[in-house]
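To illustrate the input format used throughout this study, we show a single complete record. The first block contains the structure-token representation of the backbone; no residue identities are included at this stage. The design step must infer an amino acid for every position from geometry alone.
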């Protein structure tokens, strides 16, 4: 059988332009699409497609972490920045003021308008190695209220600065709590022990 010399569709012959050029391919595709029969897609197809592309909802804590770690840029004008700067200055000033108040609190009075008084505590026990004073003015803690031995007075002494009022106190002698043996007034503490009572008045220095 003799083959035809006519070139096949989509092939090119030497020295001649190919028939299946882009324009011809485009034209053939358009004609084929026009001749196709249109059919409605089944309803279950749409549901399956939407189920497949439905976005997965992440837990709230992951969404929150993503929002918190997502880089953001802000553009502020000087007018918009002024309230923020004033707020920062106010917060800083308040922090400094509170720090100053906390530093001054031990030196200030516990009662409004009452000045502090110098009170000299004396414990005449020469045979002990250490002594301190505790009371409701220092939450019954001896730290910072240690007494020193005075050769001149022959006793352990410490000077406190307290506002006027009524206080209960005791001494810590060699880690043993004892009431002041020279006190005039005592108060039961409810646990079978006695505390000495100190009345601070309007005197510059009181020797107990």
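Output of the design step:
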């Amino acid at each position: 059988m003799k083959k035809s010399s006519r070139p096949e569709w989509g092939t090119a012959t030497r020295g001649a332009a190919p028939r299946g050029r882009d324009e011809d391919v485009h034209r053939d595709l358009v004609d084929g699409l026009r001749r196709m029969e249109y059919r409605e897609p089944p309803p279950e197809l749409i549901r399956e497609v939407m189920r497949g592309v439905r976005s997965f909802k992440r837990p709230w804590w992951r969404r929150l972490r993503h929002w918190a770690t997502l880089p953001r840029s802000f553009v502020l004008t000087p007018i918009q920045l002024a309230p923020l700067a004033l707020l920062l200055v106010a917060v800083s000033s308040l922090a400094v003021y509170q720090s100053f108040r906390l530093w001054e609190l031990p030196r200030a009075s516990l009662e409004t308008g009452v000045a502090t008084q110098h009170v000299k505590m004396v414990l005449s026990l020469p045979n002990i190695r250490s002594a301190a004073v505790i009371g409701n003015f220092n939450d019954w803690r001896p730290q910072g209220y240690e007494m020193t031995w005075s050769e001149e007075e022959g006793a352990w002494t410490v000077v406190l600065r307290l506002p006027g009022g009524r206080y209960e106190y005791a001494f810590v002698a060699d880690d043993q709590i004892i009431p002041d043996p020279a006190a005039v007034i005592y108060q039961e503490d409810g646990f079978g022990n006695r505390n000495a009572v100190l009345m601070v008045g309007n005197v510059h220095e009181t020797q107990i």
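Structural context for interpreting the output: The radius of gyration is 48 Å. The chain has four helices and nine strands.
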